[in-house]
Amino acid sequence: MKIGITCYPTYGGSGIVATELGLELANLGHEVHFITYANPIRLDPGTPRIHYHEVEVSTYPLFQYPPYSLALASRMAEVAERYELDLLHVHYAIPHSISALLARDMLAKHRRLPFVTTLHGTDITLVGTDRSYFPITKFSIEQSDGVTAVSDYLRQRTLEVFGVEKPIHVILNFVNCETYQPHPESRRLQTFAPGEKLLIHISNFRPVKRVGDCIRILGQVRKHAPAHLLMVGDGPERMPAEELAHDLGVASHVTFLGKQDHVERLIPLAHVLLLPSELESFGLAALEGMACGVPPVASRGGGLAELVTDGVDGYLEPVGDISAHAARVTELLSDDALHRRISGGARHTTQTRFCTSLIIPQYEQVYREVCRG
Ligand code: GMT
Question: Is residue 56 pLDDT above 80, yes or no?
Answer without folding.
Answer: yes
